[in-house]
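User: Round two. Same drill as before: sequence, then structure, for each protein.

Assistant: Same drill it is. First protein:
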Amino acid sequence: MLIKQTTCRLFLTGAWQALLDTLFPIRCLGCRARNAWICDPCLSRLPVRQEQHCPNCIKHITPNGEVCFACRDEGHTALSGVFVASYYHDTLLPCAIHNYKYRFLSALANPLARFLQSALEKTSLPLPDIIIPVPLHRKRLKFRGFNQSELLARELASLLTPGIDLPLESDVLLRIRATTPQIKTGSREERLHNLRDAFAIHENKVHHVAGKSVWLIDDVATTGTTLSECANTLKKNGARSVFGIVLAR
Protein backbone atom coordinates (compact mmCIF):
# COMPACT_ATOMS: atom_id res chain seq x y z
CA MET A 1 0.00 0.00 0.00
CA LEU A 2 2.82 2.41 0.93
CA ILE A 3 4.56 1.75 -2.39
CA LYS A 4 1.32 2.45 -4.28
CA GLN A 5 0.75 5.70 -2.37
CA THR A 6 4.33 6.82 -3.04
CA THR A 7 4.03 5.95 -6.73
CA CYS A 8 0.74 7.82 -6.98
CA ARG A 9 2.19 10.86 -5.23
CA LEU A 10 5.20 10.89 -7.57
CA PHE A 11 2.90 10.59 -10.58
CA LEU A 12 0.74 13.51 -9.42
CA THR A 13 3.81 15.62 -8.68
CA GLY A 14 5.22 14.86 -12.11
CA ALA A 15 1.88 15.57 -13.77
CA TRP A 16 1.55 18.89 -11.94
CA GLN A 17 5.10 19.89 -12.92
CA ALA A 18 4.39 18.92 -16.53
CA LEU A 19 1.24 21.06 -16.50
CA LEU A 20 3.16 24.03 -15.08
CA ASP A 21 5.89 23.58 -17.69
CA THR A 22 3.22 23.58 -20.42
CA LEU A 23 1.31 26.61 -19.15
CA PHE A 24 4.34 28.56 -17.90
CA PRO A 25 7.41 27.22 -19.74
CA ILE A 26 10.81 28.17 -18.41
CA ARG A 27 12.39 30.53 -20.91
CA CYS A 28 15.60 32.50 -20.82
CA LEU A 29 14.95 36.08 -19.73
CA GLY A 30 17.43 37.22 -22.35
CA CYS A 31 16.80 35.28 -25.56
CA ARG A 32 13.65 33.27 -24.71
CA ALA A 33 15.37 29.91 -25.21
CA ARG A 34 13.64 27.09 -23.34
CA ASN A 35 14.60 25.26 -20.15
CA ALA A 36 16.70 27.93 -18.40
CA TRP A 37 15.92 31.26 -16.77
CA ILE A 38 19.31 32.49 -18.01
CA CYS A 39 20.91 30.32 -20.69
CA ASP A 40 24.68 29.85 -20.75
CA PRO A 41 25.28 32.08 -23.81
CA CYS A 42 23.31 34.95 -22.24
CA LEU A 43 25.03 34.43 -18.89
CA SER A 44 28.43 34.66 -20.58
CA ARG A 45 27.47 38.00 -22.16
CA LEU A 46 26.60 39.75 -18.90
CA PRO A 47 29.05 42.65 -18.53
CA VAL A 48 31.57 42.55 -15.69
CA ARG A 49 32.73 45.86 -14.25
CA GLN A 50 36.23 46.70 -15.38
CA GLU A 51 36.79 49.23 -12.61
CA GLN A 52 35.85 49.22 -8.95
CA HIS A 53 35.38 52.37 -6.89
CA CYS A 54 35.51 53.29 -3.22
CA PRO A 55 32.00 52.36 -2.03
CA ASN A 56 31.80 55.37 0.24
CA CYS A 57 32.76 58.39 -1.88
CA ILE A 58 32.51 56.66 -5.33
CA LYS A 59 35.23 59.07 -6.51
CA HIS A 60 38.35 56.94 -6.45
CA ILE A 61 39.13 53.79 -8.42
CA THR A 62 40.38 51.23 -5.92
CA PRO A 63 41.54 47.59 -6.09
CA ASN A 64 38.53 45.25 -5.84
CA GLY A 65 36.34 48.10 -4.54
CA GLU A 66 38.30 48.75 -1.35
CA VAL A 67 37.49 51.84 0.71
CA CYS A 68 39.89 54.61 -0.32
CA PHE A 69 42.53 55.96 2.08
CA ALA A 70 40.69 59.23 2.69
CA CYS A 71 37.40 57.56 3.65
CA ARG A 72 39.23 54.97 5.72
CA ASP A 73 41.16 57.62 7.65
CA GLU A 74 37.99 59.61 8.32
CA GLY A 75 36.17 56.50 9.56
CA HIS A 76 33.14 56.94 7.31
CA THR A 77 32.31 53.23 7.11
CA ALA A 78 33.04 49.94 8.86
CA LEU A 79 33.34 48.23 5.48
CA SER A 80 36.72 47.27 4.10
CA GLY A 81 35.22 47.56 0.63
CA VAL A 82 32.39 46.55 -1.69
CA PHE A 83 32.94 44.49 -4.83
CA VAL A 84 30.27 45.17 -7.46
CA ALA A 85 30.11 42.56 -10.22
CA SER A 86 28.15 44.50 -12.84
CA TYR A 87 25.95 47.48 -13.66
CA TYR A 88 22.31 48.09 -12.79
CA HIS A 89 21.07 49.53 -16.06
CA ASP A 90 19.80 48.29 -19.43
CA THR A 91 21.10 44.74 -19.35
CA LEU A 92 19.71 41.32 -18.59
CA LEU A 93 20.97 41.52 -15.01
CA PRO A 94 18.40 43.98 -13.55
CA CYS A 95 15.62 41.99 -15.24
CA ALA A 96 16.91 38.80 -13.62
CA ILE A 97 17.28 40.44 -10.20
CA HIS A 98 13.75 41.87 -10.42
CA ASN A 99 12.29 38.45 -11.28
CA TYR A 100 14.39 36.84 -8.56
CA LYS A 101 13.14 39.17 -5.83
CA TYR A 102 9.66 40.24 -6.88
CA ARG A 103 8.39 37.33 -8.96
CA PHE A 104 9.93 34.95 -6.41
CA LEU A 105 11.93 32.94 -8.99
CA SER A 106 14.30 31.36 -6.49
CA ALA A 107 15.81 29.17 -9.23
CA LEU A 108 17.65 32.27 -10.47
CA ALA A 109 19.97 32.02 -7.46
CA ASN A 110 22.19 29.53 -9.28
CA PRO A 111 22.87 31.42 -12.53
CA LEU A 112 23.27 34.69 -10.63
CA ALA A 113 25.77 33.04 -8.27
CA ARG A 114 27.63 31.56 -11.25
CA PHE A 115 27.94 35.03 -12.74
CA LEU A 116 29.13 36.44 -9.41
CA GLN A 117 31.66 33.64 -9.12
CA SER A 118 33.07 34.34 -12.59
CA ALA A 119 33.41 38.05 -11.75
CA LEU A 120 35.12 37.33 -8.41
CA GLU A 121 37.60 34.98 -10.07
CA LYS A 122 38.98 37.99 -11.97
CA THR A 123 39.86 39.76 -8.71
CA SER A 124 42.65 39.39 -6.18
CA LEU A 125 40.25 39.20 -3.24
CA PRO A 126 41.26 36.47 -0.78
CA LEU A 127 38.52 34.09 0.29
CA PRO A 128 36.95 35.01 3.64
CA ASP A 129 36.68 32.95 6.80
CA ILE A 130 32.88 33.06 6.62
CA ILE A 131 30.10 34.24 4.32
CA ILE A 132 27.09 36.07 5.77
CA PRO A 133 24.02 37.13 3.78
CA VAL A 134 22.27 40.42 4.48
CA PRO A 135 19.24 39.29 6.52
CA LEU A 136 15.55 39.94 5.91
CA HIS A 137 13.14 40.84 8.66
CA ARG A 138 10.90 37.88 9.55
CA LYS A 139 7.83 39.63 8.09
CA ARG A 140 9.52 40.16 4.73
CA LEU A 141 10.89 36.62 4.81
CA LYS A 142 7.42 35.22 5.43
CA PHE A 143 6.01 37.27 2.56
CA ARG A 144 8.72 36.34 0.05
CA GLY A 145 9.27 32.78 1.22
CA PHE A 146 13.05 32.99 0.94
CA ASN A 147 15.90 35.40 1.54
CA GLN A 148 17.34 36.14 -1.89
CA SER A 149 20.71 37.12 -0.38
CA GLU A 150 20.94 33.86 1.56
CA LEU A 151 20.18 31.69 -1.49
CA LEU A 152 22.74 33.65 -3.52
CA ALA A 153 25.32 33.28 -0.73
CA ARG A 154 24.65 29.56 -0.40
CA GLU A 155 25.10 28.94 -4.12
CA LEU A 156 28.22 31.12 -4.22
CA ALA A 157 29.81 29.33 -1.27
CA SER A 158 29.45 25.96 -2.99
CA LEU A 159 30.83 27.30 -6.29
CA LEU A 160 33.93 29.07 -4.95
CA THR A 161 35.39 25.99 -3.26
CA PRO A 162 33.87 22.88 -4.90
CA GLY A 163 33.54 20.00 -2.47
CA ILE A 164 34.49 22.17 0.51
CA ASP A 165 31.81 24.80 1.02
CA LEU A 166 32.90 28.02 2.65
CA PRO A 167 31.23 28.39 6.06
CA LEU A 168 27.89 30.11 5.55
CA GLU A 169 26.41 31.76 8.64
CA SER A 170 22.80 32.58 7.77
CA ASP A 171 21.44 33.06 11.29
CA VAL A 172 24.23 35.04 12.97
CA LEU A 173 23.30 38.48 11.66
CA LEU A 174 19.66 39.34 12.32
CA ARG A 175 17.38 42.12 11.10
CA ILE A 176 15.47 42.87 14.29
CA ARG A 177 13.44 45.81 13.06
CA ALA A 178 11.28 46.07 9.95
CA THR A 179 12.40 49.00 7.79
CA THR A 180 11.22 50.91 4.77
CA PRO A 181 13.00 49.74 1.58
CA GLN A 182 16.07 51.94 1.15
CA ILE A 183 15.08 52.81 -2.41
CA LYS A 184 12.02 54.62 -0.98
CA THR A 185 14.07 56.88 1.28
CA GLY A 186 15.52 60.22 0.21
CA SER A 187 18.56 61.77 1.87
CA ARG A 188 21.53 60.03 3.44
CA GLU A 189 20.20 61.08 6.84
CA GLU A 190 16.86 59.39 6.12
CA ARG A 191 18.62 56.20 5.04
CA LEU A 192 20.76 56.13 8.16
CA HIS A 193 17.77 56.81 10.42
CA ASN A 194 15.77 54.12 8.62
CA LEU A 195 18.39 51.47 9.43
CA ARG A 196 19.44 52.63 12.88
CA ASP A 197 19.40 49.68 15.32
CA ALA A 198 17.89 47.45 12.61
CA PHE A 199 20.58 44.75 12.88
CA ALA A 200 22.00 42.64 15.68
CA ILE A 201 24.12 39.55 16.23
CA HIS A 202 22.43 36.45 17.63
CA GLU A 203 23.33 36.52 21.31
CA ASN A 204 24.60 32.94 21.29
CA LYS A 205 26.69 33.31 18.13
CA VAL A 206 28.99 36.28 18.70
CA HIS A 207 31.94 33.86 18.69
CA HIS A 208 31.08 32.90 15.11
CA VAL A 209 32.24 36.32 13.85
CA ALA A 210 34.88 37.33 16.41
CA GLY A 211 38.28 37.63 14.71
CA LYS A 212 36.89 36.50 11.32
CA SER A 213 37.10 38.00 7.86
CA VAL A 214 33.59 38.22 6.43
CA TRP A 215 32.07 38.49 2.98
CA LEU A 216 28.69 40.17 3.33
CA ILE A 217 26.47 39.08 0.43
CA ASP A 218 23.58 41.05 -1.06
CA ASP A 219 21.98 41.22 -4.48
CA VAL A 220 22.12 44.99 -5.06
CA ALA A 221 23.74 47.96 -3.34
CA THR A 222 21.77 51.15 -3.92
CA THR A 223 23.52 53.59 -1.62
CA GLY A 224 25.58 51.08 0.37
CA THR A 225 23.94 52.11 3.64
CA THR A 226 22.54 48.63 4.36
CA LEU A 227 25.93 47.01 3.86
CA SER A 228 27.57 49.69 6.00
CA GLU A 229 25.11 49.23 8.87
CA CYS A 230 25.51 45.44 8.74
CA ALA A 231 29.30 45.92 8.78
CA ASN A 232 29.00 48.22 11.81
CA THR A 233 27.15 45.51 13.71
CA LEU A 234 29.65 42.83 12.70
CA LYS A 235 32.70 44.94 13.56
CA LYS A 236 31.24 45.92 16.95
CA ASN A 237 30.98 42.21 17.69
CA GLY A 238 34.58 41.46 16.81
CA ALA A 239 34.71 40.78 13.06
CA ARG A 240 38.22 41.46 11.78
CA SER A 241 37.08 42.74 8.38
CA VAL A 242 33.84 42.97 6.37
CA PHE A 243 33.79 43.12 2.57
CA GLY A 244 30.51 43.58 0.73
CA ILE A 245 29.89 41.43 -2.36
CA VAL A 246 26.98 42.39 -4.64
CA LEU A 247 25.76 41.69 -8.15
CA ALA A 248 25.12 45.29 -9.13
CA ARG A 249 24.96 48.88 -7.98
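Second protein:
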Amino acid sequence: MPYVERAGAPRLYYEVAGDPRRPPIVLVEGLGGDVTGWRRNVPHLAAELFVVAYDHRGCGRSGPADEPTTMTMYVDDLLAVLDELGIRRAHAYGQSFGGAVVIELALAHPDRIGSAILAATHPGSRHTVPAPGRAPKDKPWLQRYSPAFADAHPDLVRKDRELEGRRSRPGERRQWDAMRAWDAYDRLGAVTVPVLVLHGSQDRLVHPDNARLLADAIPGAELAILDGAGHAYHLEQPERADDVVLDFVRRHRDR
Protein backbone atom coordinates (compact mmCIF):
# COMPACT_ATOMS: atom_id res chain seq x y z
CA MET A 1 0.00 0.00 0.00
CA PRO A 2 1.24 3.54 -0.71
CA TYR A 3 2.17 5.46 2.43
CA VAL A 4 4.05 8.62 3.27
CA GLU A 5 6.51 7.72 6.02
CA ARG A 6 7.92 10.55 8.18
CA ALA A 7 9.99 10.62 11.33
CA GLY A 8 7.95 11.76 14.30
CA ALA A 9 4.64 11.91 12.42
CA PRO A 10 1.90 9.40 11.59
CA ARG A 11 2.23 7.65 8.26
CA LEU A 12 -0.31 8.78 5.68
CA TYR A 13 -2.17 6.49 3.29
CA TYR A 14 -2.87 7.85 -0.18
CA GLU A 15 -4.25 6.77 -3.55
CA VAL A 16 -3.83 8.20 -7.04
CA ALA A 17 -5.88 7.92 -10.23
CA GLY A 18 -5.50 9.20 -13.75
CA ASP A 19 -2.56 10.22 -15.89
CA PRO A 20 0.29 11.85 -13.89
CA ARG A 21 1.05 14.05 -16.90
CA ARG A 22 -2.26 15.83 -16.38
CA PRO A 23 -2.81 18.71 -13.93
CA PRO A 24 -2.89 17.34 -10.36
CA ILE A 25 -5.76 17.83 -7.93
CA VAL A 26 -5.62 16.76 -4.29
CA LEU A 27 -8.88 15.77 -2.57
CA VAL A 28 -9.13 16.62 1.12
CA GLU A 29 -11.88 14.80 3.01
CA GLY A 30 -14.19 15.99 5.74
CA LEU A 31 -14.40 15.21 9.45
CA GLY A 32 -13.52 11.57 10.13
CA GLY A 33 -13.64 10.63 6.46
CA ASP A 34 -11.21 8.74 4.27
CA VAL A 35 -10.54 8.23 0.57
CA THR A 36 -13.75 6.21 0.16
CA GLY A 37 -15.69 9.44 0.63
CA TRP A 38 -14.67 10.44 -2.91
CA ARG A 39 -15.60 7.13 -4.55
CA ARG A 40 -18.37 8.67 -6.67
CA ASN A 41 -16.11 11.49 -7.85
CA VAL A 42 -12.66 10.06 -8.56
CA PRO A 43 -13.50 8.28 -11.87
CA HIS A 44 -15.01 11.41 -13.41
CA LEU A 45 -12.26 13.73 -12.16
CA ALA A 46 -9.50 11.28 -13.15
CA ALA A 47 -10.68 11.28 -16.77
CA GLU A 48 -9.23 14.79 -17.02
CA LEU A 49 -6.92 15.30 -14.03
CA PHE A 50 -4.31 13.44 -11.99
CA VAL A 51 -6.23 12.77 -8.78
CA VAL A 52 -4.58 12.40 -5.37
CA ALA A 53 -6.65 11.41 -2.33
CA TYR A 54 -5.41 10.58 1.15
CA ASP A 55 -6.56 9.69 4.65
CA HIS A 56 -6.05 12.30 7.36
CA ARG A 57 -3.91 11.30 10.32
CA GLY A 58 -6.04 9.25 12.68
CA CYS A 59 -8.48 8.27 9.91
CA GLY A 60 -8.84 5.41 7.45
CA ARG A 61 -5.57 3.59 6.86
CA SER A 62 -3.31 6.39 8.04
CA GLY A 63 -1.49 6.22 11.37
CA PRO A 64 -3.12 7.31 14.63
CA ALA A 65 -3.37 10.91 15.80
CA ASP A 66 -1.92 10.40 19.26
CA GLU A 67 -1.32 14.05 20.14
CA PRO A 68 -3.40 17.23 20.04
CA THR A 69 -3.58 18.61 16.53
CA THR A 70 -3.77 22.00 14.87
CA MET A 71 -4.91 23.02 11.42
CA THR A 72 -1.27 23.68 10.55
CA MET A 73 -0.47 20.02 11.19
CA TYR A 74 -3.15 18.94 8.72
CA VAL A 75 -1.74 21.38 6.16
CA ASP A 76 1.71 19.87 6.70
CA ASP A 77 0.24 16.41 6.13
CA LEU A 78 -1.25 17.49 2.82
CA LEU A 79 2.07 18.95 1.70
CA ALA A 80 3.86 15.76 2.73
CA VAL A 81 1.62 13.77 0.37
CA LEU A 82 2.34 16.15 -2.50
CA ASP A 83 6.07 16.07 -1.75
CA GLU A 84 6.04 12.26 -1.74
CA LEU A 85 4.62 12.35 -5.26
CA GLY A 86 6.97 15.09 -6.44
CA ILE A 87 4.10 17.52 -7.01
CA ARG A 88 5.16 21.13 -6.59
CA ARG A 89 1.74 22.69 -7.18
CA ALA A 90 -1.75 21.17 -7.24
CA HIS A 91 -5.34 22.25 -7.35
CA ALA A 92 -6.70 21.66 -3.85
CA TYR A 93 -10.31 20.52 -3.29
CA GLY A 94 -11.48 20.32 0.30
CA GLN A 95 -14.88 19.26 1.58
CA SER A 96 -16.19 20.36 5.01
CA PHE A 97 -13.22 19.98 7.43
CA GLY A 98 -11.06 19.49 4.34
CA GLY A 99 -12.20 22.89 3.10
CA ALA A 100 -10.81 24.48 6.25
CA VAL A 101 -7.49 22.73 5.63
CA VAL A 102 -7.42 24.11 2.09
CA ILE A 103 -8.18 27.64 3.31
CA GLU A 104 -5.22 27.45 5.67
CA LEU A 105 -3.07 25.96 2.92
CA ALA A 106 -3.98 28.83 0.57
CA LEU A 107 -3.04 31.38 3.23
CA ALA A 108 0.22 29.76 4.34
CA HIS A 109 1.50 28.24 1.08
CA PRO A 110 -0.11 29.96 -1.93
CA ASP A 111 2.83 28.86 -4.07
CA ARG A 112 1.73 25.22 -3.68
CA ILE A 113 -1.82 25.77 -4.99
CA GLY A 114 -3.04 26.27 -8.55
CA SER A 115 -6.58 26.92 -7.33
CA ALA A 116 -8.71 26.15 -4.28
CA ILE A 117 -12.16 24.57 -4.13
CA LEU A 118 -13.83 25.18 -0.77
CA ALA A 119 -16.86 22.94 -0.47
CA ALA A 120 -19.53 22.64 2.25
CA THR A 121 -17.26 24.50 4.66
CA HIS A 122 -17.09 27.71 6.70
CA PRO A 123 -14.65 30.51 7.63
CA GLY A 124 -13.91 29.35 11.17
CA SER A 125 -15.32 28.74 14.61
CA ARG A 126 -15.98 32.35 15.59
CA HIS A 127 -17.81 33.26 12.38
CA THR A 128 -19.71 30.10 11.47
CA VAL A 129 -23.37 30.57 10.64
CA PRO A 130 -25.16 27.93 12.77
CA ALA A 131 -26.60 24.84 11.13
CA PRO A 132 -30.19 25.38 9.96
CA GLY A 133 -31.77 22.21 11.35
CA ARG A 134 -31.32 18.79 12.86
CA ALA A 135 -32.12 15.29 11.70
CA PRO A 136 -34.21 12.98 13.93
CA LYS A 137 -32.30 12.00 17.07
CA ASP A 138 -32.61 8.29 16.24
CA LYS A 139 -31.22 8.85 12.71
CA PRO A 140 -28.39 11.38 13.06
CA TRP A 141 -26.73 10.25 9.81
CA LEU A 142 -29.57 11.88 7.88
CA GLN A 143 -28.03 15.25 8.80
CA ARG A 144 -25.56 14.73 5.94
CA TYR A 145 -28.22 14.47 3.24
CA SER A 146 -31.01 16.52 1.80
CA PRO A 147 -34.36 15.03 2.88
CA ALA A 148 -35.36 14.32 -0.72
CA PHE A 149 -32.16 12.37 -1.45
CA ALA A 150 -32.40 10.29 1.73
CA ASP A 151 -36.00 9.35 0.90
CA ALA A 152 -35.26 8.50 -2.73
CA HIS A 153 -31.97 6.60 -2.25
CA PRO A 154 -32.03 4.56 0.97
CA ASP A 155 -29.67 2.01 -0.60
CA LEU A 156 -26.95 4.61 -1.17
CA VAL A 157 -27.42 6.01 2.34
CA ARG A 158 -27.11 2.47 3.72
CA LYS A 159 -23.85 1.93 1.83
CA ASP A 160 -22.47 5.23 3.13
CA ARG A 161 -23.31 4.19 6.68
CA GLU A 162 -21.49 0.89 6.23
CA LEU A 163 -18.35 2.72 5.14
CA GLU A 164 -18.67 5.25 7.95
CA GLY A 165 -18.69 2.39 10.45
CA ARG A 166 -14.95 2.07 9.84
CA ARG A 167 -14.24 5.60 11.00
CA SER A 168 -11.73 6.28 13.77
CA ARG A 169 -13.54 8.25 16.44
CA PRO A 170 -10.29 9.37 18.18
CA GLY A 171 -9.05 10.74 14.85
CA GLU A 172 -12.35 12.52 14.30
CA ARG A 173 -12.17 14.09 17.77
CA ARG A 174 -8.66 15.40 17.02
CA GLN A 175 -10.01 17.06 13.87
CA TRP A 176 -12.92 18.53 15.76
CA ASP A 177 -10.61 20.02 18.38
CA ALA A 178 -8.38 21.55 15.69
CA MET A 179 -11.42 22.99 13.95
CA ARG A 180 -12.83 24.56 17.12
CA ALA A 181 -9.52 26.36 17.77
CA TRP A 182 -9.29 27.67 14.19
CA ASP A 183 -10.74 30.76 12.54
CA ALA A 184 -9.62 32.35 9.28
CA TYR A 185 -12.34 34.91 8.62
CA ASP A 186 -10.20 37.99 9.34
CA ARG A 187 -7.45 36.66 7.03
CA LEU A 188 -9.58 35.71 4.02
CA GLY A 189 -8.82 38.97 2.26
CA ALA A 190 -5.21 37.80 1.96
CA VAL A 191 -6.08 34.78 -0.19
CA THR A 192 -4.46 35.29 -3.59
CA VAL A 193 -5.18 32.05 -5.44
CA PRO A 194 -8.31 31.48 -7.58
CA VAL A 195 -11.13 30.16 -5.38
CA LEU A 196 -14.38 28.33 -6.05
CA VAL A 197 -16.83 28.12 -3.15
CA LEU A 198 -19.18 25.17 -3.61
CA HIS A 199 -22.16 24.29 -1.39
CA GLY A 200 -25.47 22.45 -1.38
CA SER A 201 -28.60 24.55 -0.89
CA GLN A 202 -30.07 21.95 1.51
CA ASP A 203 -26.97 21.49 3.72
CA ARG A 204 -28.18 20.78 7.26
CA LEU A 205 -24.71 20.48 8.80
CA VAL A 206 -23.02 23.64 7.49
CA HIS A 207 -25.42 26.45 6.67
CA PRO A 208 -25.24 27.60 3.02
CA ASP A 209 -24.80 31.17 4.25
CA ASN A 210 -21.25 30.16 5.21
CA ALA A 211 -20.51 29.76 1.51
CA ARG A 212 -21.72 33.28 0.88
CA LEU A 213 -19.54 34.59 3.72
CA LEU A 214 -16.50 32.94 2.16
CA ALA A 215 -17.27 34.13 -1.35
CA ASP A 216 -17.83 37.71 -0.19
CA ALA A 217 -14.63 37.81 1.87
CA ILE A 218 -12.20 36.17 -0.59
CA PRO A 219 -11.11 38.45 -3.45
CA GLY A 220 -12.42 37.24 -6.79
CA ALA A 221 -13.99 34.06 -5.40
CA GLU A 222 -16.66 32.31 -7.45
CA LEU A 223 -19.77 30.87 -5.78
CA ALA A 224 -21.69 27.79 -6.93
CA ILE A 225 -24.75 26.57 -5.03
CA LEU A 226 -26.05 23.12 -5.99
CA ASP A 227 -29.81 23.36 -5.72
CA GLY A 228 -31.39 20.58 -3.68
CA ALA A 229 -28.11 19.04 -2.46
CA GLY A 230 -27.21 18.43 1.18
CA HIS A 231 -23.89 18.41 3.02
CA ALA A 232 -22.86 15.29 1.13
CA TYR A 233 -23.48 17.14 -2.12
CA HIS A 234 -20.66 15.25 -3.90
CA LEU A 235 -22.37 11.94 -3.14
CA GLU A 236 -25.88 13.15 -3.94
CA GLN A 237 -25.04 14.97 -7.17
CA PRO A 238 -21.59 13.65 -8.11
CA GLU A 239 -21.63 14.36 -11.85
CA ARG A 240 -23.03 17.84 -11.40
CA ALA A 241 -20.52 18.67 -8.66
CA ASP A 242 -17.64 17.22 -10.68
CA ASP A 243 -18.63 19.24 -13.75
CA VAL A 244 -18.58 22.47 -11.73
CA VAL A 245 -15.14 21.61 -10.33
CA LEU A 246 -13.72 20.57 -13.70
CA ASP A 247 -14.99 23.72 -15.40
CA PHE A 248 -13.27 25.82 -12.72
CA VAL A 249 -9.99 23.90 -12.86
CA ARG A 250 -9.90 24.06 -16.67
CA ARG A 251 -9.90 27.84 -16.46
CA HIS A 252 -6.93 27.75 -14.07
CA ARG A 253 -5.18 24.59 -15.24
CA ASP A 254 -1.94 26.34 -16.21
CA ARG A 255 -1.31 27.96 -12.83
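The domain at 3-251 is CATH 3.40.50.1820 (Rossmann fold).

User: Perfect.
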